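Recap from last week: sequence in, structure out.
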Amino acid sequence: MKFVANLLVAIHNVAAAEAMVLAIKSGLDPALALKVVSDGAGSSRMLQVRGPMMVKGDYSDVTMKVQTWQKDMTIIGDFARKLDCPTPLFSASAPIYTAAMAMGRGAEDTGVVCEVLERMANSPRRFSVNARRERRQKN
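Predicted structure tokens:
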């Protein structure tokens, strides 16, 4: 049962981040977008849990570290392959978490996939905690 639930968590977390990046890139206020979407049919538990982190751009209040999550994803992927069960959405979400690891974000919450997608969209926010930290390190 845990594998089934965590497969959904992996997908929903990336889907929530993707929606937030679309809102941000289109010029919507992230906090307002979260509020409106959270009250509708498009909401998910991952949007409710990680959406506030995504709005702030701060992933330091860790509920699940990316590096730990990577291990769980490997186990779930192996389990599905062993059963010869296709998991195309789960498989599509995996590179986003891998990119977070490559960015050195393994110790942060998995909500950091929002920042991965923001960078892919060439739309990193100036107000995010990590963007401010990077600017301070350059100066």
